[in-house]
């Protein structure tokens, strides 16, 4: 019995020596592709000392605007616009020499206030907020600003904001979706009409963040357009929409989303490049 024990101990010692003393060639690791460094700068990750160096009179400042709490039917999340704004912001950062500020999460969205979770500011507040943000940044040098706009009702307050800062010698522009999407919509869209949580917006999300889309809950909801907001009441003031949808998201596909998205990205980048070369407005006396 003692002899067997000794033999087992000797075998164990040999195995330990082999494992500990003999080195086996390691499998060569495949080099990981290096991620390209973004051309733009996100201001929130800088110190104020670093920020001072990038905020000059020649800087183009980009501010994304996307509601973080606004209804988008039963198949899309409340933060739908915020997700899109963040996505477009990242795409701009990749290739454009810009300074990007944090996304504005609230603005003027009056059409959706009957649906729980939706937030809207009045148009004057939305306009003033944008102006104050731009003024505070412009105080450190920049005179050119671009807002990545993901809304429709936001267009008018943004236009007023642009008029106000222009009187101070500041140039501001913003995204108008339909301007960039019209050719693609004409080519591939199949829905009869609509503009909210519809074929276009749902397709965009299927491409940008498919994990957030529940197509099993997407339904066609397209009633006649009437003046006023969307309403959950059949005889209420505005366009009747029991779901919060206006259009036909059941027609949405990821491929359509890819085409819509790439058209918007190209349009946004071109807007920014055009802004860089446009003359600054003359300050009002």
What layout of secondary structure does this protein have?
Elements: H1 2-21, E1 41-42, H2 48-54, E2 60-65, H3 80-95, E3 99-104, H4 123-138, E4 144-149, H5 155-166, E5 171-174, H6 177-188, H7 199-208, E6 230-231, E7 239-240, H8 254-277
Parallel strand pairs: 1-3, 2-3, 2-4, 4-5, 6-7
Helix pairs in contact: 4-5, 6-8, 7-8
Summarize the structure.
Helix 6 packs antiparallel against helix 8 and helix 7 packs across helix 8 (254-277). The protein is 41% helix and 10% strand. It has eight helices and seven strands.
What does this structure look like?
The protein has 285 residues and is α/β, with parallel strands linked by helices. It has one domain: Rossmann fold, CATH 3.40.50. The chain is built from eight helices and seven strands. The longest helix is centred in the last third of the chain and has 24 residues, at 254-277. The protein is globular, with a radius of gyration of 27 Å. Residues 9-25 have low confidence and may be disordered.
Strands of the widest sheet, in order across it, are 1-3-2-4-5
Uncertain parts = 9-25
Q: What portion of residues belong to β-strands?
A: 5-15%
Following the backbone from N to C, one meets helices and strands in this order, namely HEHEHEHEHEHHEEH
The overall pLDDT, averaged over residues, is: 91
Question: Sheet with the most strands?
Answer: 5 strands, parallel
Helix and strand content put the structural class at alpha/beta
Round the Cα radius of gyration to an integer and report it: 27 Å
N-to-C span? 107 Å
CATH architecture: 3-Layer(aba) Sandwich
Number of discrete domains? 1
Query: Percentage of helical residues?
Result: 40-55%
CATH top-level class: Alpha Beta
Number of helices: 8
The CATH superfamily turns out to be Creatininase
Q: Which fold name fills CATH's third level, the topology?
A: Rossmann fold
DSSP summary, beta strand count = 7
The shape, in one word, is globular
């Amino acid at each position: 019995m003692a002899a067997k024990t000794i033999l087992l101990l000797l075998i164990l010692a040999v195995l330990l020596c082999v494992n500990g003393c003999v080195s086996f060639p390691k499998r060569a690791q495949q080099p990981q592709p290096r991620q390209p460094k973004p051309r733009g700068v996100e201001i929130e990750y800088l110190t104020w000392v670093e920020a001072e160096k990038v905020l000059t009179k020649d800087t183009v400042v980009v501010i994304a605007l996307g509601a973080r709490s606004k209804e988008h039917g039963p198949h899309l999340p409340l933060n739908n616009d915020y997700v899109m704004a963040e996505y477009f912001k990242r795409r701009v950062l990749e290739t454009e020499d810009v300074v990007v500020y944090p996304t504005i999460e609230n603005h003027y969205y009056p059409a959706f206030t009957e649906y729980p979770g939706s937030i809207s500011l009045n148009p004057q507040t939305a306009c003033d907020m944008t102006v104050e943000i731009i003024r505070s940044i412009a105080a450190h040098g920049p005179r050119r600003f671009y807002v990545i706009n993901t809304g429709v009702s936001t267009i008018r307050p943004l236009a007023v904001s642009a008029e106000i800062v222009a009187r101070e010698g500041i140039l501001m522009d913003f995204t108008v979706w339909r301007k960039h999407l019209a050719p693609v919509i004409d080519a591939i869209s199949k829905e009869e009409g609509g503009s909210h949580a519809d074929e276009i917006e749902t397709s965009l999300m299927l491409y940008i963040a498919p994990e957030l889309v529940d197509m099993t809950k997407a339904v066609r909801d397209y009633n006649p357009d009437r003046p006023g907001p969307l309403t959950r009441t059949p005889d209420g003031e505005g366009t009747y929409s029991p779901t919060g949808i206006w259009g036909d998201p059941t027609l949405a596909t990821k491929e359509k989303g890819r085409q819509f998205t790439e058209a918007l990205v190209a349009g946004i980048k071109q807007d920014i490049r055009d802004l860089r070369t446009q003359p600054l407005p003359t300050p009002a006396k």
